[in-house]
Design a protein that fits this description.
By secondary structure, the protein is of the alpha+beta class. The chain has a single domain, classed as Alpha-Beta Plaits (2-Layer Sandwich), CATH 3.30.70. It is built from four helices and five strands. It has helices at residues 24-31, 40-53, 55-58, 97-115; strands at residues 10-21, 69-77, 81-92, 123-133, 140-141. It has a five-stranded antiparallel β-sheet with strand order 2-3-1-4-5, with helices on one face. A hairpin with a 3-residue loop joins strand 2 (69-77) and strand 3 (81-92). The radius of gyration is 16 Å and the shape is elongated.
Length: 143
């Protein structure tokens, strides 16, 4: 692990996004809450937030962080694309980029798991960091 003992505590935040591509009829089932496994958005939201909180257990050498804020959001983009956004914040010595990316990833995998009985060809694409702030490097935003 990187030694953080000399770094200053600052407010640090990050946002990530990922897309799930599926048939419009599957996305309609998800959006209307008609899947047999239950409320897909609620389950994926909790899974993503839990993943953000447990990132250091999943990714070797990641520092354990006490997040002060975490959110997962869902936006329908077109007829068969669901965008998931993940954002989190911490007051600490290291950034939360990995936590935001992990939250988006696990939320997407949760949706896949809940929908695979209806459509196995769903694919997950374009996972990326879209914004980060805080620390020595300051603000960064994807183009």
């Amino acid at each position: 692990m990187v030694d953080l003992s000399e770094k200053a505590d600052t407010i640090r935040s990050a946002t990530a996004r990922v897309e799930l591509v599926m048939s419009p009829s599957t996305l309609d089932l998800v959006s209307d809450g008609r899947l047999s496994k239950g409320d897909v958005f609620a389950v994926a939201r909790v899974a993503g937030i839990q993943a953000m909180k447990r990132t250091s257990d999943l990714i070797p050498l990641c520092h354990p962080l006490s997040l002060t804020d975490a959110h997962i959001g869902f936006t329908r983009r077109g007829s068969g694309v669901l965008e998931i956004s993940s954002s989190c914040k911490v007051y600490g010595k290291t950034g939360v980029e990995m936590e935001a990316l992990t939250g988006a990833s696990i939320a997407a995998l949760t949706i896949y798991d809940m929908c695979k009985s209806v459509e196995k060809g769903i694919h997950i694409q374009d996972l990326r960091l879209t914004r980060k702030s805080g620390g020595k490097s300051g603000e960064w935003k994807a183009e």
